[in-house]
Each structure stands twice: as structure tokens, then as C-alpha cells.
Design a protein that fits this description.
This protein is of the alpha/beta class. It has 25 helices and 18 strands. It has a seven-stranded mixed beta sheet with strand order 1-2-8-7-6-4-3. Strands 12-14-13-15-16-17-18 form a seven-stranded mixed beta sheet, with helices on both faces. Helix 16 packs across helix 17. The N and C termini lie far apart (about 75 Å).
């Protein structure tokens, strides 16, 4: 076309009138130049047209190609190819860019035509895009309604196929449409109340099913979306894809219930919100849409029934766990709970250290985690995330945690652990019908392993006899002190603990406990005030012939000194018959394990003869977060539950 226009100009009458005024020699030079330029231009145009035709393809890398194919309003801010195609077919692209509300109204008016499925999806996606730019919640809710109608039509033959790429996008539009459409005014939470809301194409009457707001003996309140949270500090994020908005909620006491007093008052629990729309297509035609808000604990209900469909509920166990730990006071407990013997953390009805992540569930085996010195249950976060993210584990186990003042005498902390577990079992299963709760697994790290061992041994009077020559029943003690010492020092195995896992446990003491710096720091530990009376009375037993050596009230560090009578006595106690025992022993470096240590505990102290399994992990003392340790715990739990 360019060439023909140029040649046309050269043959035009105006060109020749201009030519007549130019000298011959100059005209000849110009003629050659113009012909040369024309030839060059012709060659250039031919070259370019040969490289890029009006229709063709261009090779791009795989990442770019996939990103273009899968792009949608949620991932890129731009409508997907499916919605764009519908706009192009109806010559609405330009109008949508200028007046999106008008185009949405026009697409809406065309519902009922053969392309209704395509229109419903496009309405869901384009309504969400409009909400993003206009910041109007009504369009978010409209997106959720259109997506629901697209996913669950009255005639199942009109439902999208399993391999339709729009299926997952529509589910996500529904989920995020609910979160944004029901958000509080400041955007910090989700407002789950009964109300009527105006939509661009009618009204929505939202009813609320109150049953979902009960969480054990608690009422749920202050809902926060988990879908827009970025998780830090955990290696993997486990999300169960499905329908519904994953939320976190606070719990408020609703009624007195012994079984539900084991949830801390400040606990944040995961929940999934789902709005069931009643025949949304009919509601659209009438301008009145009915919806019912339902809440689900996905630990109990992982699916929801929608018409003839059974659909998985969306959940995000990792985000829920990380949200619980964000800014939690449990992080401050680690040092404070080590130094101060009376420091309290939990606000449970039974403030004795044991708590559950969710209300007790029958037929799920409790796994109890016991942290080590100057530590807290938060240090189990990586392991808890991996276990909760495993459907096989989550469907067979429930996670319990024990928090204690780790500077206190080990016998006192172990007593609280045993009594807490016994009380919890009685509260959750008073009639003794649940077999699962009586197959309990206790996992202890470092000092926590010593506490765990004291749930599965029979000490008789060995702890007392090792320090005192006078028989216990003849010692001059008041009833309160006698009761405390009996409960702490005369240990019997708990019949419901059937398996223990020791991780980096100093069965024969820690060489670090006798370190000069540690000994110096020991002076700054404050023991519980309740032990003062017992200490005074035990000091009186220093009469000649009644006390083997001068008595001082020991700290946990004292108890873990390799020369301490307590740890020496505990190391000699056999595990009760029928209890399965496993050891996970971290050792630094690549040398022989028998000659190594983890920086705190030597292999020879952590090693036990006769265990069912022993795994050497090449790591430091805090090994409960390493993949090898976690996978060994997973293997053991699979074995315990008979998972194949």
C-alpha cells in the first residue's frame, strides 16, 4: 500500500508541474535518488511484512505463557480470557472500560439466553473487578451470588465440568466475595450478623444459623479473614481448597462445662463461613435473594452438602496457627516462666498448664507436647503445622499442649502434668467410653522428656528414700506439705498414656547444668511461694541421723545436674510394662554419635536401652523443628494409629 501510494505520487500531474521548474541536471539526480529510495523502501516493507504478519504467533517462555492463560481478576487484576471473550462477542470491551456498571446491567439483562453459564461467570468476575475499582461492597456480594449460581445451578446439567478452568476461579470469587462483601467498615474483620443489603440488581436478605456460633462451651466472636494473610516463620502452608471463607475467631465463655475449660480464654480458633443462597437465579429474576450464613469447624465438618453436591470446605490450618501465635503472650512466657515459679499464662478454667487447640473430640487420640527449659508450646509450631496439615494425622489425633514454669523443681512440674492429664481425661470422658483418650501419646523435648517419663514410671518411695533416712510416714510434716510431697515424689504410671517419645532428653542429666555460668544464673530463679512452707519443714529434718545430706530446695537446673540424686534416681526407673517408647537424639557434627552431643545433652545421657526405635538427627538441641525429627514423629504416630 505504501509503495502504490508513492508510485501514484510520482505519476501525479502536480509532481510533473513541480518537475518542470527544476533544472535538468538536478532533475536527473533527483530521479535517481527517488528511484533509489523507492526501491529501498519497497525492500524494507517486504522485509518487515515477511517477519510480522497481522495474524501470527510469537514464542515466549513457559512461565509467561502460563501466566497469560491463567490470568484472572484475582491473580492479575484483569478479567480472565473467558470474561473477555464474552465482552468481545457482544462488542462491550470499550464500554466496559468506560462504564462497567452499564455493561454489567446489560449482561445481567441477557440472563436466560443460551449463553447463561458464560454470562454468570463473567458477571461474577466483572462484578468483583468493579468492586475493586469502585470500593463498593455490594458488588463483592453480587460477585459471590453470581459465582454461587454459576457453580450450583438448579439443573445439574448446567454445572461447569470438572476440568473447566473457570470452576476454581468461581469458587475463589465466591469465597473472597463473601469476605470483602461482609467486611467491617474499617476492613479489619468480617461482620457476620443478620441483615438486609442492597445489591446492584436487587436486595439480599441474610439470615444467620446460630448453631455455628457455638464452639464447645464458648461463643464465637470477632471474626478475621485468613485468606489475605501472609504467613512467616513456617516452612509450609497447608490449605484445603474448597468453598467458604476461612476465618479466625475469638472465643467467649458461654456456659460452664468441665470438658471445655481446657481452651484458653484468649484462644483464636479457625472457622469457615458459608452462605447458602436459596435458588439464586429465581431470586435474581425477582430482585430478592435469600441467603443463610452457616459456620463450620472443619475439624468436625470438612464438607458441606449443596443440593446434590458434596463440596469440601475451604480451610487454612497454617494461617490459623500463625495467626494464633502472632503477638501471643506465650512468646514472653519462655524466660519469665523459667525465672518466676508462680508466673501464670493461661486463662483457662483449670489454670494448671494443659490446654487444647480446639474442643475435645471423641475418637481422636490426644498427642500431648511438653516443652523444655526456658521454652514454651510455641516452639512446637513447626511440628504442629506439619501434623495438622496431614489429613491422616488430623483425622486420627488432636493436639494438646502443656506449659509449665521450667525453673521449678522437675518433680513439681511433672506432678502438675500428671494431675492435669488425669483431670482432663475425667472431664472429657467421665464415663470412660472413649478408647481414643486412653491411647494417649506424650512427646517431651529436653526437660519436657523428663516430665513425660514421670507419666509412665512407678517410683515407689525411691525419690524420698534417696534423700531422707526417716520413712515418709514417720516424718514430722503438716498435712498440706505431706500431701504435696506425696503427690510429687511418689509417682505411679498413668494408665491412659500408652506411648512416649523422648526428644533430646537428658535422662542422666545435662553436662551444661553444672556449668559455672548456669550455676550463677540459677541464683536468679524464683521458686513458687507455695514451696516455702515445705522447704522450712524439710529443713527441720536436718537432725542428726535423719538427713543424709544438707537439704536445699532444688531448681530444675539443679535436678538436671549429672550428680543430682533426683536425675540419678529417675534414670534408674524402668518404663511401665506395655508402654511404647521412642528416642530421637540430636547430635552435632558427623562423628560417632556415642562420642557426641547436641550442645546441651550428650548422646550417652539421651540414649535408653530397650526402646522400640532410636533416631540420630544431626542437629543442635532445638531439634523439634527439623524435618528429620518431625518426620520421625509422623512415622511413629502413623504406627500408633495403624495408618497404612
Amino acid at each position: 500500500m505504501i509503495i502504490s501510494e508513492l508510485l501514484g505520487f510520482l505519476g501525479d500531474a502536480k509532481f510533473y508541474r513541480l518537475r518542470a521548474k527544476i533544472p535538468c541536471r538536478v532533475r536527473q539526480s533527483m530521479r535517481l535518488s527517488i528511484r533509489g529510495y523507492a526501491v529501498a523502501l519497497s525492500l524494507f516493507v517486504l522485509f518487515v511484512s515477511g517477519c510480522a504478519t497481522p495474524v501470527g504467533v510469537k514464542h515466549v517462555d513457559q512461565e509467561t505463557a502460563y501466566r497469560v492463560l491463567e490470568a484472572n481478576v484475582l491473580s492479575s487484576g484483569n478479567p480472565s480470557a473467558s470474561s473477555t471473550q464474552l465482552l468481545e462477542r457482544n462488542a462491550l470491551v470499550w464500554r466496559y472500560q468506560k462504564h462497567p456498571e452499564e455493561v454489567l446491567a446489560e449482561l445481567y439483562s441477557g440472563l436466560g439466553n443460551p449463553d447463561e453459564r458464560d454470562r454468570l461467570f463473567a458477571l461474577a468476575e466483572l462484578s468483583f473487578a468493579c468492586a475493586e475499582t469502585r470500593h463498593e461492597q455490594s458488588y463483592y456480594l453480587s460477585s459471590a451470588v453470581f459465582a454461587y449460581a454459576y457453580l450450583f445451578p438448579e439443573n445439574s446439567q448446567d454445572a461447569p465440568g470438572a476440568y473447566d478452568p473457570r470452576l476454581r476461579i468461581a469458587v475463589d470469587l465466591y469465597n473472597q466475595g463473601l469476605v470483602n462483601g461482609l467486611a467491617t467498615k474499617d476492613g479489619s474483620g468480617v461482620d457476620l450478623i443478620q441483615r438486609r443489603m442492597q445489591l446492584p440488581f436487587g436486595s439480599l436478605d441474610l439470615q444467620v444459623d446460630p448453631r455455628g456460633f457455638r464452639y464447645g462451651g464458648y461463643h464465637l466472636t470477632k471474626f478475621v479473614s485468613l485468606s489475605d494473610l501472609k504467613v512467616r516463620g513456617l516452612r509450609n502452608r497447608y490449605r484445603n481448597a474448597g468453598i467458604g471463607a476461612p476465618l479466625a475467631a475469638r472465643v467467649e465463655p458461654m456456659q460452664q462445662s468441665a470438658a471445655n475449660q481446657w481452651i484458653p480464654a484468649t484462644m483464636k480458633v479457625p472457622i469457615t463461613a458459608f452462605v447458602r443462597f436459596d435458588n439464586p437465579r429465581r431470586g435474581m429474576s425477582e430482585g430478592k435473594i435469600q441467603g443463610t450464613l452457616e459456620l463450620y469447624d472443619t475439624n468436625e465438618d470438612s464438607v458441606v452438602r449443596i443440593g446434590s453436591n458434596t463440596v469440601s470446605l475451604e480451610s487454612d490450618s497454617t494461617a490459623a496457627l500463625a495467626y494464633r501465635l502472632e503477638g501471643a503472650p506465650i512468646w514472653d512466657f519462655e524466660l519469665a516462666g523459667f525465672r518466676r515459679g508462680d508466673f501464670s499464662l493461661l486463662g483457662t478454667g483449670k489454670d494448671n498448664g494443659l490446654f487444647m487447640l480446639h474442643p475435645y473430640m471423641p475418637d481422636l487420640i490426644p498427642v500431648v507436647f511438653v516443652h523444655g527449659t526456658a521454652s514454651s508450646p510455641a516452639r512446637w509450631a513447626e511440628m504442629a503445622n506439619e501434623l495438622l496439615g496431614d489429613p491422616n494425622i488430623a483425622s486420627h489425633y488432636q493436639l494438646w499442649f502443656f506449659v509449665y514454669n521450667s525453673g521449678n523443681p522437675i518433680a513439681l512440674s511433672a506432678m502438675k502434668l500428671r494431675e492435669s492429664l488425669s483431670a482432663a481425661v475425667t472431664d472429657v470422658d467421665p464415663e470412660g467410653k472413649d478408647r481414643a483418650v486412653r491411647q494417649m501419646v506424650v512427646i517431651g523435648h529436653s526437660q519436657g522428656g523428663l516430665l513425660a517419663k514421670m507419666t509412665v514410671v512407678d517410683s515407689g518411695s525411691r525419690f524420698w528414700d534417696r534423700r531422707f533416712k526417716v520413712p515418709f510416714d514417720q516424718a514430722q510434716l503438716d498435712p498440706e506439705t505431706r500431701d504435696l510431697l506425696r503427690r510429687a515424689l511418689f509417682v505411679q504410671p498413668l494408665p491412659f498414656v500408652t506411648r512416649v517419645i523422648f526428644i533430646a532428653t537428658p535422662h542422666r542429666g545435662s553436662y551444661m547444668a553444672s556449668n559455672f555460668v548456669v550455676k550463677f544464673g540459677n541464683k536468679f530463679l524464683n521458686l513458687p511461694g507455695g514451696l516455702v512452707k515445705a522447704a522450712v519443714q524439710l529443713e527441720r529434718l536436718r537432725q542428726p541421723g535423719t538427713l543424709g545430706s544438707p537439704f536445699t530446695l532444688p531448681t530444675a537446673l539443679d535436678n538436671m545436674d549429672v550428680s543430682n540424686p533426683f536425675v540419678q534416681t529417675l534414670s534408674g526407673l524402668p518404663i511401665a510394662p506395655g508402654v511404647h517408647v521412642h528416642s530421637i537424639i540430636p547430635v552435632k557434627g558427623n562423628g560417632p554419635p556415642e562420642q557426641g552431643n547436641d550442645g546441651v545433652v550428650e548422646y550417652n545421657s539421651a540414649h535408653l536401652e530397650g526402646v522400640e526405635s532410636e533416631l540420630i538427627v544431626r542437629s543442635g538441641h532445638s531439634t523439634q523443628s527439623t524435618p528429620e525429627t518431625i518426620e520421625e514423629v509422623r512415622r511413629i504416630l502413623y504406627e500408633h494409629a495403624g495408618i497404612h
